[in-house]
Protein 1
Amino acid sequence: MRTALFALAAASLFATAVQAAPASYAIDPTHTFATFEIDHMGTTTNRARFDKKSGSVEFDKAGKSGKVEVSLDMASVNSGTPAFNKHLQSAEIFDAEKFPTAKFVSDKFVFDGDKLKEVTGQLTIKGQTHPVTFKANKFNCYENPMLQKRETCGGDFEATIDRTQWGVDYGMAYGFPKQVRVVLQIEAVKQ
């Protein structure tokens, strides 16, 4: 009887541990976007996105923890204007030939109750890495009807960074601001 109770308790603990393990998700590139915007002389806002991106997510709902890794192909920057794209790729700004990839790697999910509040981590641009906190404007998990009801999680995240920390200082002499708003829209499918 004692052995049976021990086996039942061990099986219950194992089942709980398995349920609490983080799940792995692959970023869906068709529903994941990385964009940035910067003020243009107090008149308009310049915006661009990166068309090629990849990454993964680990998420533990019960443990309210996770990890995110997103890589951006810097040569895929797209402002909608070919000449501006070339300038963004140039050594004056992103130096995409020398530094072809930018990356965000999170180290912490911060919750307020059951609501994801922010994701903190390290952002690497032009070979330089600095901490960044992305505020979660939205976050949700759902059964994706187009993917045989596979769980999909994601949200809209934003941060304002000082671009000069990463050596992106073009236009400072002309009065362009240091602050750049970065928006990550991520959806990832459970594997």
Protein 2
Amino acid sequence: MPMCPSPYPIGLFADPTGSVTPFVCWIEDYPLPYGLKMPSYVGSFDGKGDPDNFLHLFEGAICMQKWLMHVAYHMFTYTLKDSTLWSNSQKGGSILNYEDLKAKFRSHFSQQKRFTKTHLAVYSIKQREGESVRAFATRFTDDTLQILGLHEDQRISGFVYGLRTRNLVEHLSTNLPSTYKGLMEKTYIWIEAREVATNGALNDQRDNFEKSRKSS
């Protein structure tokens, strides 16, 4: 993207804590206008997604909001959930333009970039010992979104295969849903029923204890 000539000398900028930022001073010192807002569809980057996908969303925001590039640099750092960690990993004053910013961002988070996996990878996602069904369902759904070309029936069978909770396996195997959405709905109904039953049993135990204490 085109950059305006720098009105300030190239140099380093130290924030109030004394640490050197990765931006040159004419970027860091640029006065930000009031009322800046990040579009909700951009969200924030936590280091777990594809950095290229996030850059695509952010560049769309630059165009839609008509941000000057000086402003865009600062808005970009605000989208990072751990911007301090990322900034400290960069050499002070090393970011001179948007191409520098993109290159360093990609390099830092390149290990998080999505890789194409075959459908066989779905059978390696298994419920861990001590992991709740709710947590496993969330993790399984997130992980399988990264497997390109995964068929619905493979996703369904992979989830059932990865479960350690035998009661749920038996429950799902009876009239097994034909869609993954249906499978998740049936799973969460089972989870909520178990939670209600568990809470009810705890309440009964508490009531019996209170009755026994009062009688004694």
Protein 3
Amino acid sequence: MRPDHSFKGRQFTAEVILWAVRWYLMFPISYRDLELMLQDRGVAIAHTTLFRWVQTYAPEIEKRIRPHLRASNGSWRVDETYVRVKGRWMYLYRAVDSRGQTIDFLLSAKRDAEAEKRFFRKALGQPHTVNPRTITVDKNPAYPCAIEKLKEDGELWRRSRLRQVKFLNNIVEQDHRRVKRLVRPGLGFDSFWTARRTLAGYEVMAMVRKGQLRRIGGRDMRAQANFVAELFQIAA
């Protein structure tokens, strides 16, 4: 196994960095709150450094966790919510299955058929997803266009059934609250790429807390910490 050099040149140990990043991504705290929490543990660090850690390691944690997720089922519930980026509202497409397990997410500046096609292509390409039997969405007229095009291109199973029934999407609408709760302390994002990296971390750690990791419970914090540490070849 090749040594992991992800933390090479950092002033702090990998254990401290992963602890800080995991906590920021799991709980509704600001960078300044996390700075004070670390000071209480004897670790003096600026909130700007914590921001840089999250921007560097949140997408890396997401990439490394993806292959270890449990398979989702074929009943997809798709919806979009709003995220403020540099004073503008942008669209966060999200999907869960009928059990509430996260399928995928995509941040987009636009809410149209092209954005929806990108989202479905991204979701279908994940190792833990299957081609859906049913796709439940709201009354947004762009969804039927996107679904039809994906079927024509052979990217989506032709027998996948689209259901535009709003009340059936309560599962995903309730699940949006997880993201909103985490975003609120930060008062929005300064750029699209900052938002994208941070949201990737929020979403993948939410998957972990939902119990989507194979052989690791959603409430077993010690096992989760050990697992993330092992992904980077360190001891938690």
Protein 4
Amino acid sequence: MAPASPVADTPSIDDLAARAAAVCGAWASSGEFGEYVVYERDGRWMFAARPQARIILTKTQVIVDPAPGDEGARTREISWAGDPADALNAALDGLGLSHWRLYGWVGFDYCAPHHGLLDRVQDDVVLAHLIVPGLEAFVDVDGISAPGADEATLERLRELAERPVNAGSEETIDVGNDPDDYRGRVATAVREINEGRYQKVILSRSVDVGFDVDIPATYVRGRRGNNPARSYLLHLGGLEAAGFSPELVVAADGMGSVVTEPLAGTRAFGRSPEIDAAARADLLSDEKEIAEHAMSVRACFTEIESVALPGTTVVDEFMVVRERGSVQHLASTVSGRLDPDAGPWRALGVLFPSITASGIPKAPALEAIYRLEPQRRELYSGAILVADSSGELEATLALRTIFAEGDRAWLRAGAGIVGQSRPEREFEETCEKLGSVAPFVVRAAR
């Protein structure tokens, strides 16, 4: 295989991000590689396409499309019940692949079996959609590479990398309307919290974009304006999404470590140095935000502890401020040594959905979400994930994302509701979070 083509001569981090996002956006926009997942991690962009195997998990079945060439290969539909981690592990064992890497997503409803809420999920809802790609291409500081690809494919990837992506024009998306009474739903949650039904719940609201969106172009533009923990772009099973996630749900490194990174507490960012500094100081001194964050960290500690070897769970970092696009958050890191008897998929099940996208205690908070939110979350507050046969698994929280399916495109954002919450402030927080994506949305070319 020919050597990697350089992205630039010693590019800065910002230059690399802009260039790599544009390259992946061009590959995605070309339509030449079928369904795909783009995932950015630690200065490297992964483009996974041409699925050679696929696993789709529904409420009652796991559907397995095995790898081509597998003797007697055929699509299998297998009934399952109980723990979805067991269903996914069995499906992976049945692929007939000794080594694999997996890309895809798990939707919010993946949590339902763990918490006795499966009756809230419609029969045709997809809980997870995962692929083993036939093509993996990478963009990083060393350039473009595609291990295992033939020379013609690599050359075509290089050619497409120079193709400009739809630049779009300024679009205005009104995120300030409240057609489904978000403020009223927050007031209901505050009342239920003060009645002792749960301690915290994250309530979200959806905003329809109102026009056809070029999702890859939105990813390219949005990555220039965001500083995410992870970014992603995907088109699987009719669902498209581009997002700039502020936090991980869980990461297992395949060598024993398991980590989660809860964020809770938000203020706007990017207005001016003086305003940003004042907002940061306010965030670090706000009694409600501090209490909400400490509550989240304590819950995450308990969850990590349940899948870690005894005595290994620690809070590595507590209540620092991290800047993520148009907002800044209180952030912590909790880790442990993963119990081999639990494994990465069980860890995902325990930590999913993130405490910071569900609530405390998790089960009654999830019940409140199903009851108080008028629209299904689908992928919102689910996760985009990468996993492999060595035991590595990383799932990033699906927030700060634009979604498109059929003739609809939409944004969604939420806020953490506790007993001290004020409905107007929580609505304002959702507007601040929607501002991480809304200004970068690109209208599809006619």
